[in-house]
Design goal:
The complex is a heterodimer of chains A (114) and B (114).
Chain A lengths: L4 E3 L2 E4 L5 E6 L6 E8 L3 E9 L2 E4 L8 E7 L2 E6 L8 E8 L2 H4 L2 E2 L3 E5 L1
Parallel strand pairs in A: 2-11
Antiparallel strand pairs in A: 1-3, 3-8, 4-5, 4-9, 5-6, 7-8, 9-10, 9-11
Chain B lengths: L2 E3 L4 E5 L4 E3 L2 E3 L4 E8 L5 E7 L5 E3 L5 E5 L4 E6 L8 E9 L7 E2 L3 E6 L1
Parallel strand pairs in B: 2-12
Antiparallel strand pairs in B: 1-4, 3-9, 5-6, 5-10, 7-8, 8-9, 10-11, 10-12
The chains are: A mainly beta (114), B mainly beta (114).
């Protein structure tokens, strides 16, 4: 298995532009998590899905952020409009059920908003 | 709800010396415990996990951790570190009651001094 695949690896965009981050989880994993990592705040859980259904989005910073999982093999995290404070590394992770198996993380997308 | 405390944000160690990275957790129920490693510019990778049974758990790259229920700790150890162990290490916990979310600590940056 190729693991959790995220694209793009790096994204530089101007303030106000729409940004879409993509994630392909490991086949058969029924949980998908989106995290944000910054020096100041560490790892923050933004949202997670179970069987493509959003379960907890309490970590989504504000309405500018949205996430979807249209099928078991694809998820997107969208920021519209983007702001400089959104600059961070965004990780996607998938799991069979984190309590017992832990997560498998992707390599992340480094987002820079200028 | 659970919480995880990693008391040391940075740990410098000389090459070939032993190291211990500390992790304490808080939970009202029985837990599963994990250590993850993050190498520069990469995602988090599972190092080892404690589910049940023997309190001494062995992981990849020569690391091991010991679960101590009375002290609510899960410290990570390695008898002799290498330059390649330079990374950030995260402790994480989930409860055994089916909660699929992992709660992560703030991380410990391990720096190996040649």
């Amino acid at each position: 298995d190729a693991g959790v695949i995220q694209s793009p690896r790096h994204e530089v965009t101007e303030m106000g532009q729409e940004v879409t981050l993509r994630c392909k989880p490991i086949s058969g994993h029924d949980y998908l998590f989106w995290y944000r990592q910054t020096m100041m705040r560490g790892l923050e859980l933004l949202i997670y899905f179970n069987n493509n259904v959003p379960i907890d989005d309490s970590g989504m910073p504000e309405d500018r952020f949205s996430a979807k999982m249209p099928n078991a093999s694809f998820s997107t995290l969208k920021i519209q409009p983007s702001e400089p404070r959104d600059s961070a590394v965004y990780f996607c992770a998938s799991s069979l059920g984190a309590g017992l198996y832990g997560y498998t993380f992707g390599s992340g997308t480094r987002l820079t908003v200028v | 709800a659970q919480s995880v405390t990693q008391l040391d944000s940075q740990v410098p160690v000389f090459e070939e010396a032993p190291v211990e990275l500390r992790c304490n957790y808080s939970s009202s129920v029985s837990v599963y415990l994990f250590w993850y490693v993050q190498y520069p510019n990469q995602g988090l990778q599972l190092l080892l996990k404690y589910l049940s049974g023997s309190t001494l758990v062995k992981g990849i790259n020569g690391f091991e951790a010991e679960f101590n229920k009375s002290q609510t700790s899960f410290h990570l150890r390695k008898p002799s570190v290498h330059i390649s162990d330079t990374a950030e290490y995260f402790c994480a916990v989930s409860d055994q009651g089916g909660n699929e979310k992992l709660t992560f600590g703030t991380g410990t940056r391990l720096t190996i001094i040649p």
